[in-house]
Amino acid sequence: MAIANAQLFIGGEWVQSASGTYFDVINPATEQVIARVPDAGPDDMRRAIDAAHAAQASWADAPAADRAQILLRAAQQMRAQTEELAQLMTEEEGKPLNESRGEIAYAASFLEWFGEEAKRVYGEIIPASSANKRILVIKRPVGVSLAITPWNFPAAMITRKVGPALATGCPVIVKPSELTPLSALAIAKIFEDVGLPQGVLSVLTGTQPGPLVNVAMMDFSVRKISFTGSTQVGKLLMTQAAESMKRVSLELGGQAPFIVFEDADLDAAVSNAVVAKMRSVGESCVAANRIYVQRSVVAEFSRKLTAALAAMHMGNGLDPNVSVGPLIDSRAVAKVARHVADAQEKGARVLLGGERPEGLGYFYPPTVLANVDESMLITQEETFGPVAAILAFDTEEEVIARANNTRAGLAAYYFTRDVGRVIRLAEQLEYGILGANDGVPSTAQAPFGGIKESGLGREGSHYGMDEYLDIKYVSLGGISR
């Protein structure tokens, strides 16, 4: 896909970075350079903010139907270019081509959903306390927004933020991960093609996110920050945002439990565990990180899960037979290896995998660990890799307490045929997203987000629109009868 010679997209124009410098994009399956893109700096961010600020009033006042049409056309074009976009994603991020195709469909669904929601930002009339007054409630766009997105879902995490921003009338600047900038530039090209007005969207690629983001954090005209990434960085952004009271949405780290009760459909639980653990080779904030299985069925579940993961083929995601791609970089491989080694030292037993293969590429094989307990790093940190850590439990009360024993609260999964238990766990598990007999709960029309240290705010659904809207009320006096 042509990306305007790998330039920055600022204010509706393709430009070089102010510094004139570039950085390499690496294919994690081959460790080869696949592109060079501009390395944006503070001056580029200032230019993007100025362009967004200049476009803010006209975009906010544009008819909702016009904003909707642009989003819907962008969704349509994204679907039409699925093969190009998916190949680009696989080359820069590593996930198998079928998963990349699925992500493009997922990304387009956010543009479509928010394009439809753009026409449904309703106000309200509230009964006043006086006969000669009326109280009117209106919603207006919060203003210039900055979206900081991760590498693991390089298209969907952009559209999940850009969609509601544009739908509500907010110009938006995107800072994608330096590991996966090509998908972001491709999305910018789509919006250019469908007629998005100049200044409403900018995309800045850069290897120094700190200086770039600091410019936006210090600029009062930037009124909204949306970030997906680590809890540590999220806390820093929240602190910085307080200086000018910017609106903040944070989707941070997870520590997802996957709970299997003895009355569950074990085959369904295993197939869902494969998806919840191995989607994007485990590099997902909602990936199953701790798999709790009731003791009476832990042996059978472990055997079935091991067989399912052993059947998966690892390799370059462009190979149609591959279902397990590489991790994103060498640091990711080192972290997974450290977690596995720590677990083995503390008594875990390797049922599958556990050793990195030789050769090029940041690969780590599907791995199953038995006899895991909470003393091990793999239960205390996000592994972000293809390791299924299995822990046995005895009672419902026990597993709820163990599952909740974390400062994270993004996603949790549980499998049972007991309807009462479904409701009890929905109420008692301290997580923002719950998959009850469902390992794939994410969808554009549902409110995605966590509690505790997993973040603030929601993305997707009509709640995602609220994140970009200010509520104002007008007390209208002088009404005579």
How does this model look, in words?
- This protein has helices spanning 42-61, 64-80, 82-93, 97-117, 156-168, 181-193, 209-218, 231-242, 266-278, 298-310, 330-345, 396-404, 419-428, 461-466; strands at residues 8-10, 13-15, 22-27, 32-38, 124-126, 134-141, 144-148, 172-175, 201-203, 222-228, 247-251, 256-260, 288-294, 349-352, 367-370, 387-393, 411-415, 433-436, 455-456, 469-476.
- The chain is an alpha/beta fold and 481 residues long.
- 38% of the residues lie in helices and 21% in strands.
- It contains 14 helices and 20 strands.
- A 7-stranded mixed beta sheet has the order 14-15-16-13-12-17-18, sandwiched between helices. Strands 9-8-7-10-11-19 form a 6-stranded mixed beta sheet, sandwiched between helices. Strands 5-6-20 form a 3-stranded antiparallel beta sheet, with no helix packed on it.
Observed structural traits:
481 residues, alpha/beta, Aldehyde Dehydrogenase, Chain A, domain 1, Aldehyde Dehydrogenase, Chain A, domain 2, 2 domains, 7-stranded mixed β-sheet, 6-stranded mixed β-sheet, 14 helices, 20 strands, 21% strand
